[in-house]
Design goal:
This protein is mainly beta. Helix content is 0%, strand content 65%. It has a four-stranded antiparallel sheet with strand order 2-1-5-6, with no helix packed on it. Strands 3-10-7-4 form a four-stranded antiparallel sheet, with no helix packed on it. Strands 8-9 form a two-stranded antiparallel ribbon. Belongs to the bacterial ribosomal protein bL21 family. InterPro entries: bL21-like, bL21-like_sf, Ribosomal_bL21, Ribosomal_bL21_CS. This is Large ribosomal subunit protein bL21.
């Protein structure tokens, strides 16, 4: 089974065909096909191809399953004895994709 390491949204992911993962928000409709061109490594069995910095001609195709927002993260800044308390919440947007193929 072949696998690849791709870079999207400032993060790196190790993917195989059939994997479902959440990446940073992509500008694509649900059900649309997307292509990741920044492939850093491709492995198939015992052979591994490492890019410098990317593998030439390699790409990973995926299908957008859904868009959403992650669970709320609470940010609290508190100074004791100073009458200071600051609260903030954040929900990060994500895109859930399913890997359909690795072209190396």
């Amino acid at each position: 089974m072949s696998y690849a390491v791709i870079k999207t949204g400032g993060k790196q992911y190790r993917v195989q065909q059939g994997d479902v993962l959440r990446v940073e928000l992509l500008n694509a409709e649900e059900g649309a096909s997307v292509k990741f061109d920044q492939v850093l490594l491709v492995g198939s069995g015992e052979t591994i191809t490492v890019g410098a910095p990317t593998v030439d001609g390699a790409s990973v195709s995926a299908t957008v399953r859904k868009h959403g927002r992650a669970d709320k993260v609470r940010i609290i800044k508190f100074r004791r004895r100073k009458h200071h308390k600051k609260q903030q919440g954040h929900r990060q947007h994500f895109t859930e994709v399913e890997i359909t193929g690795i072209n190396a």
